[in-house]
Amino acid sequence: MQSTHTPVANARYWAAITLASVLGTNLGDLYAHASGLGLLQGLGLLLPLFLLVLWAERRDASPREAYYWTAIVLVRTAATNVADFAGDDLHLPLLALAAGLALLLALLVRPCQVGPHGRGAIGLGNTGARYWAAMLAAGTFGTALGDSLSVRIGLGPAAVGLGLLWGGLWVVTRRSLLTTAAGYWCAIALVRTAGTSIGDFLAVNPRIGLGLPKATVCALIAFVVVLTLWRQTTHSPLQRIT
């Protein structure tokens, strides 16, 4: 994507991508299971939609973030389906799957020099195929690890624990580790993991009583509200994250 279409990775960005992770978790489940399409057919429709977004983005010179955030939600939704297919249909152990995806993510992400963009922020710059492949790997990793932790320690403790871990990490490292390429991708992997457990918790917890469709709608509304009301004042400079 062009740098004029990518946001700056600041506090607004991390709030939005956290909500996008919760949304993608629930949307992936709703899309594949509740719709009756199944995991593979669902993926078959998500890929053309993603390519359509990239095609339109390349032909638009105006500065706008809609392409980036639409692609983020589509990739996160696809990652949920990929992890569920590997775990449910192929019966791969979730922890082994997460370990393999962590290795893949490390291979996709290469160290680079990333300059700060204001206090506690970095510019994503032009994002290419390597970036989106890493996003898919991080999302699939987060789904597998989040599901594994939820099974082992319980959905509620996993959602609360991972949420607190991510919030604490952001507070402590937002002006240091998170302004580096390595820190950015570690945070993305943690966000995806936390979003998986939080999304599942909101969808299935009987005390909350939302259910999957309402939880998905609530996550979508929160995501749109953050991006709409918390305005971006600058766009990403010409720097590459991968």
Description:
The protein is mainly alpha-helical. The protein has one domain (3-229). The chain contains 8 helices and 2 strands. The protein has helices spanning 11-34, 39-58, 66-89, 94-108, 129-153, 155-173, 181-204, 211-229, and strands at residues 8-9, 122-123. It has a two-stranded antiparallel ribbon with strand order 1-2. The radius of gyration is 17 Å and the shape is globular.
Number of beta-strand segments: 2
Low-confidence region ranges = 112-117
Oligomer: single chain
Give the helix/strand class.
Answer: mainly alpha
Characteristic terms for this protein:
about 240 residues, mainly alpha, two-stranded antiparallel ribbon, 8 helices, about 70% helix, globular
Could you provide a short overview of the structure?
By secondary structure, the chain is mainly α. The chain has one domain. It has helices at residues 11-34, 39-58, 66-89, 94-108, 129-153, 155-173, 181-204, 211-229, and strands at residues 8-9, 122-123.
